[in-house]
From TrEMBL:
Cross-referenced Gene3D superfamilies: Glucose Permease (Domain IIA)
Signal peptide annotation: 1-27
Keywords of the record: Signal
UniProt organism field: Nocardiopsis coralli
All copies of domain M23ase beta-sheet core, residue ranges: 74-158
Name of this protein: M23 family metallopeptidase
PANTHER family attached to this UniProt entry: L-ALA--D-GLU ENDOPEPTIDASE, PEPTIDASE-RELATED
């Protein structure tokens, strides 16, 4: 190897280093589930200013789901936690989720809203943060009005983050909705 070739090799190494750095920045697979959840910035799925109890418990199915409760839950607006595309609008009757909706927020992040009284969107609809998608109910295998809510990454339910804050696992967290304020 003659000395005049060395600068060219170094230049090539520099280009390779820059390319790998760029790929690291661009590749979403490099981001952890936590980072992706934080990036999507999921908001409390209710009217501005409403206070709800976010309940988590070990015998919940799926285990990391959240049940949102308040005394007058029945009929309250259910709003999309983030921008996205509606992927599921189903009615399972008296079983399981009853009337439920799923929304894909990109980056592998999705949310699910169950036991709804009514559904106000269709599959393929685009929604924004705070778009009303239905109302809270007690359909499916529910024993009283509440919103069963799931945050998923790549289809797996994860610990919910709302308004940038992790809620308590396991127990109760009082959350005040700042959606659409
Ligand atoms: Zn539930």
């Amino acid at each position: 190897m003659s000395p005049r070739h060395i600068p060219k090799i170094l230049r090539n190494l520099g280009v390779l280093a820059a390319m790998s750095l760029l790929l690291t920045v661009l590749a979403p697979v490099g981001a952890s589930a936590d980072e992706r959840i934080q990036d999507v910035n999921l908001r409390t799925p209710f009217d501005c200013g409403q206070v709800w109890n976010a309940n988590t418990r070990t015998n919940h199915n799926p285990q990391l789901s959240v049940d949102f409760q308040r005394s007058d839950a029945m009929g309250q607006n259910t709003r999309s936690s983030a921008p996205g595309t509606v992927t599921t609008v189903e009615d399972l009757g008296d079983e399981s989720y009853g009337k439920y909706i799923e929304i894909d927020h990109g980056s592998g992040v999705s949310t699910l809203y169950a036991h709804l009284d009514s559904q106000a969107v269709s599959v393929g609809d685009s929604v924004e943060t705070g778009t009303v998608i239905g109302t809270v109910g007690t359909t499916g295998g529910s024993t009283g009005p509440h919103l069963h809510y799931e945050q998923k990454v790549d289809g797996t339910v994860v610990e919910a983050v709302l308004n940038g804050l992790e809620i308590l696992y396991y127990g109760n967290t009082e959350v005040t909705s700042s959606t659409g304020c």
